[in-house]
Amino acid sequence: MKPTIYDVAKAAGVSIATVSKVINSTGQMREATRERVKEIMEKLNYQPSLMASALTGKGTETLGLLVPDISNPFFSEMAKTIEDRAHESGMSVIICSTDENVEKEKKYIELLQRKHVDGMIVASSFHNKKVLEGVASRGLPFVMLTTDDSGLGVTSISVDDFKGGFEATSHLLSEGHQNIVIIAEYAKSSKLRIYGYLEAHAEHGLVSSEENIFRTVASIENGRECLRQIFQKGRVPTGIFACNDLIAVGVIQEAKTMGLKIPEDLSIIGFDNTILATTTVPGLTTIAQPITEMGKKVVDVIISEIKNKNQTKERILFKPQLIIRGTTAMNNR
Amino acid sequence: MKPTIYDVAKAAGVSIATVSKVINSTGQMREATRERVKEIMEKLNYQPSLMASALTGKGTETLGLLVPDISNPFFSEMAKTIEDRAHESGMSVIICSTDENVEKEKKYIELLQRKHVDGMIVASSFHNKKVLEGVASRGLPFVMLTTDDSGLGVTSISVDDFKGGFEATSHLLSEGHQNIVIIAEYAKSSKLRIYGYLEAHAEHGLVSSEENIFRTVASIENGRECLRQIFQKGRVPTGIFACNDLIAVGVIQEAKTMGLKIPEDLSIIGFDNTILATTTVPGLTTIAQPITEMGKKVVDVIISEIKNKNQTKERILFKPQLIIRGTTAMNNR
DNA sequence: CTGAAAGCGCTAACAC
DNA sequence: GTGTTAGCGCTTTCAG
Fold this sequence. Notes:
six-stranded parallel beta sheet, 13 helices, about 45% helix, six-stranded mixed beta sheet, DNA-binding, Rossmann fold
């Protein structure tokens, strides 16, 4: 059904070696021969098997991308730029969504290895470091994205989370908010953002209570739920720093159903600057991650590691940027 | 670096055939042997190569998914449910974003074939049907998603676009709007939605002018641009039916910057019911596609076609559902 | 119960 | 210039 190199060779009256050479544009041969073989390949609609060639030592020209949730706009936007950049370099991308699920993380990591990806981009928090160590020990190039290297000496790319947390909080603080709740994720990046949040308080001569730190998993629904909890626990913040846009949107929605006016009654700042930040009303004030640049960079890095193994590992930090829209305002309480 | 079946066999003191049997849980052997081999595999962190096994005729347990734009929430949400469902069935998914680009469409289709995917889900409009024919002629199972079969007898899954267009328009009409502009995409699905739009007009005893039909590519920016054009061309609609949420959001945003009040001055209805529809203010009235069910269904179908080739091809239509939120209201002009 | 051996489609020396 | 051949890692009869 599917033509092989043998079919082409036979039809062209040459050996498979010759065909292989024209496939890979290597070796030498009469131009006429090359042309003829090409024509036959065309006519037979022949497509060389990547599996077979991968088996003989060549790469698969495939990158694995692990994200916690592809339906989170931050990751789908990231995935898009990664795909684009990868394809510019002739590589394709296998995207796997781990759902923050330890089982799946393990399963997909193994799958990607079994599929002989040339390199992996891990943008998932990875609750089980051992799996990652396995990858590293095999010499499979990989880089961490938006999450730090968890100890293994791997190159990692992320935004400066500490700074981002600091700026988000400072913005709120500078508008007179004194009672600021932070809603974080369970990820490493959130830890740093929390420290930034703490540091900003310290710099303003304030101490933030541990009770102002909430944690959840990124989703609109969880954002809503979280706001409910916050009020249930008797906190009455005038400002909320949500560690990503999804949560921030949930907070906005719940605040509205609770009858709160934004930003008059409650200021909200998000993180990521995804498409969502532009669609809410008022527009969501947020800390932008340079998604496009980060995506491009991560691809460039992984490709250079693939070509040139054992490169020095770096820790690349991108600069977060405060984007002021309409969900934050001076505190008037 | 990476252990092979030979390494395992040697370490276990058996032949590779035996190892193969334990990998695949086939054949018969002493339980002790099976156990011992398993332990060795574990210890060596052995992972059988899918490439090698694929070469010997087995499937790759991989599905290809082609979408026009993974950063469009409709497709990323769809991708997520597809991934989930596929993984439940032990299959993984390679997602490719074609960018509505003819070159890429071709490139990715070829790539997926060269990677020996077991089946393909095509959710991209496919400007070049010939490429698709190539796939079909090779006997590679594939199904079309959200776009119809363009002539080849393939099973396709989509929402009832005609009905969706009809209902969206009817809703606007029933609220007294007489001057309704439709913003469509260049896809087949949009064609049907336009017919639905026309039919709704006819049923209300109205004729819609050809000049009320605009076309663009799905993106917020294009939605904004489109609204500008609409007014530039002197149309002053009281209702706008955008063929997807992304465009609808763009229209909302632009309308606001133009100083229009929504829904007082302009009613807007979208299509898809993605996350975006819930984040705008007011919430976007839209036609919901049952993304989750469609995603599950498409996976089930492709898997059953893989198992059981030459099945009868069907055309499966899902029911669209009108979700009324805040962007539509009675016409008061 | 376990192993030997023939491929799967392709690449890369090495011959001719 | 072009062909022969030995693998790549695994599956699958078919012997033993």
